[in-house]
Every structure is written in C-alpha cells, then in structure tokens.
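Record type: monomer structure entry
Structure origin: computed from sequence
Chain ID: A
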Amino acid sequence: MDIELLLGSDHRGKELKDYIKLYEKFDVCILHDIGTYKDTRCDYPDIVKKFNDNIDAYSHGILVCGSGFGVMMAANRFKKMRAITCRTVKEVIIAREHNDINVLCLGSDYTSKHKAIQMIKAFFKTKFKGGRYKRRINKLK
C-alpha cells in the first residue's frame, strides 16, 4: 500500500500533528507537513488553503485543529477534498467505505494520541465500497 500523506494543523493541533508525523509504524512512502511549525496562533482557514493547494499529489490527508470542526468546514469548501471529523475508529471506517473521504480531520482537544493512531490506521486500510455510495457522492458535485 503506497500511502502519500499530507499533514496540516493550526496551533492547537500542532502537538498531535507532530506526533503523527513522527509515528514510525505507518507504511507511508511520502509524508509532507505543510505546517504550522510554530506554537503561535494561526488561522485554520489559511492552513487549509495551503493544504488544498497541495492535495493533488497525495492519496491521503490529515488536518488537525482543536475540535476538528473548523478544518473540516474549511476543507469541504474545496472541490478536491471530502473531509470528515471523526471521533472513533468505526466512524473512520464508515466515512471511508460510504463517503470515500480523502481527508481525515481530528480534534486535538478530544482525541488522544493512541486513539488518533488507531483512527489513522483505519483511514489508511479501509477502502471505498463504491456502488450506490459512488452514485450518492456524484450527486454532491
């Protein structure tokens, strides 16, 4: 499985993003961190815009902010991204199988490092079911 991962976060998600980036047990062939790189405040819409400008080259994306909701709302404004904030592994599996998400949004205030790793593993290994779900996704265009 060749996973090409694009990562991004605002200041509240930086610690979790950095942990994900350094986690060595993912089978990721390419990993690109678009920031933030500082603990100073930054606005998540700016990070998501930069993320969108780079998403075409990657099979998967992960965005992190405090709740996960801000980055999700911003990401779904762009045509290239299908983003959902998940809190459980089961939600990740359903989001991949039924909605073909390509961006997983995480809330650092609500997601432990251990839980994040479990959700990301599910994000990487779960495949889109297609069929009636593909028809529904096409109606969103």
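Annotation 1: The chain has six helices and five strands.
Annotation 2: The domain at 3-138 is CATH 3.40.1400.10 (Ribose 5-phosphate Isomerase B; Chain: A,).
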